[in-house]
Amino acid sequence: VMTTGGTNGGNVYNNIDLYNPVTNNWSSGGVLSTTRQDHMAVLLPTGRQLIVGGRDLGGVQLQSTELVDAFSPSWSNLTASSFSSNRSTSASLPNGRILIAGGTAATTSAALFNSTTNTSTLLGAMLSAHSNHSAVLLGSGRALVAGFTNSEVFDPAGSTFSNNVALPAVRNFGKAAVREDQQVLMVGGNNGTCYASTLLYE
Predict the structure, then answer these.
(1) Confidence (pTM)
(2) What is the spatial distance between Cα 31 and Cα 48, in angstroms, rounded to a whole number?
């Protein structure tokens, strides 16, 4: 298990830490090129970890991205992300592509990252702004982006968003998971008050 960056409230870190479940120990894996908090980290098919955006100590949103190699801990800077973001969410799509969508600031921005070429491409605007949301891969190969006020579906075949549906209520930080029947269950979240309820997307 790899963890990167983070904060203790007074400092922002660039640490890379590795957890070994066999020995039950943590060890240092080096450092990122940039200190960052509230960033997105996603495991790529290549085994490397993609680090996107986040915020610095002053709260400024970052547009930088980097790759971290877990097998021989090292990082490499990539070209800037297609948009500045923190707390974006992602969904791993077929053919090694990653959908990067939204952020804390309730943005309609979204991008596709290609793990073969290590480049990102800005997509057309999502149909609704999303913040503190979830994204999951559906059995059809499309991705559901859900949270804040709405849900919508991304189709990688045409790089388009559709099926914009309002949630029953504003829901931040809800967690979505695809069930065996391919329906999507969203659990918890809050809108000032924490929810104990769940939502089901059919």
Answers:
(1) 0.84
(2) 15
